[in-house]
Design goal:
- The protein is an alpha/beta fold.
- It has a single domain, classed as Rossmann fold (3-Layer(aba) Sandwich), CATH 3.40.50.
- The protein is built from five helices and five strands; from the N terminus they run H-E-H-E-E-E-H-H-E-H.
- The protein has a five-stranded mixed beta sheet with strand order 2-1-3-4-5.
- The model has no long low-confidence stretch (mean pLDDT 79).
Length: 133
């Protein structure tokens, strides 16, 4: 699910409440994503605020707020399939998952798989293995 789709879903939820605001904070390590959102004028959409800064957890934080209270918070972690596979093998995934779960409810955490499809990754892996032998 893309950030825009998550934001749209939250906007529908926000529509039921007056004065709701969706605040999307993009981690400072994700400059390309932030500038992509700026280029799409997402920050100018009514009821949206797009911020850029350091996040302790995740790559993107989406908050639905109304009248100074948080109604819902989502933490999104972006990964390519190659990054996900690598982090699962070296143990980083387990550590990051534990850190996320100790700070955020599990139903508010999403991983966004980016890049090629699983089938393309498997074909590429098969070619690498066969060319190495």
């Amino acid at each position: 699910m893309s950030v825009q789709m998550c934001a749209s879903a939250l906007q529908l939820h926000a529509g039921a409440r007056q004065h709701a605001m969706i605040v999307i904070t993009v981690d400072s390590h994700e400059k390309a994503l932030f500038y992509s959102m700026v280029a799409q004028n997402l920050q100018k959409a009514r009821g949206f605020e797009v911020k850029f800064g350091p996040l302790e957890l995740g790559d993107i934080r989406v908050v639905l707020a109304a009248r100074n209270s948080v109604l819902r918070e989502l933490v999104l972690e972006r990964r390519t399939l190659l990054q996900m596979n690598s982090s699962m093998h070296d143990g980083r995934y387990r550590e990051q998952k534990a850190q996320l779960l100790s700070n955020v409810a599990s139903n508010n955490i999403s991983y966004v798989a980016e890049g090629d499809t699983l089938c393309q990754s498997i074909r590429r892996e098969a070619k690498s293995v066969s060319s190495a032998t």
